[in-house]
Fold:
Amino acid sequence: AQSVTQLGSHVSVSEGALVLLRCNYSSSVPPYLFWYVQYPNQGLQLLLKYTTGATLVKGINGFEAEFKKSETSFHLTKPSAHMSDAAEYFCAVSPPPNTGNQFYFGTGTSLTVIP
Amino acid sequence: EAGVVQSPRYKIIEKKQPVAFWCNPISGHNTLYWYLQNLGQGPELLIRYENEEAVDDSQLPKDRFSAERLKGVDSTLKIQPAELGDSAVYLCASSLGGVYPSEQFFGPGTRLTVL
Structure:
């Protein structure tokens, strides 16, 4: 069974500070992992994804995430927060191929950026 | 390229009334998803289509919810009758078929309020 836990439903950072959003997954086999961002009244937009290969994945808007199998984690980071980063962030896990490309989403983390 | 289109964006109805949501996926995307997103939660899959076939509808409450995807393009999700607990955002997403894992592109959603 697949599941995703996002620690911290609300995170506040000062503009220019490090952003760290936590995501842990539960999967019986190595999954594929994703981070999506959702701005108010909009759909979800893919930030980055991990499938295979390099465990440090770079995405759009300066975000990156590192897949750590030993910790079953896929935390999202950005060195310097910008006001435009304020949004809801969702981590998602997808099981291996031939099982339907179904995504399981976490409950989300709301990021507030303080000027 | 146009994204996933959903209509209406907002809908307010009284309980026991029927309601329908429409989704037009990105051109060429064979896979279409309907998700339910409750306030403060991540999206939860209701149904997934591969072309015109519903291949995963295990989470769709079939006593009141129905969906169709005629001709494998547009899709309609219907609730009849609506209940107070159905108030939520209904998201449609689409992805390319035959590619795994396939990025899901989301529409802006339909926000349903049942009074």
Notes: The two ends of chain A are 41 Å apart (CA to CA). The longest strand of chain A covers residues 87-94. Chain A has a mean pLDDT of 90.
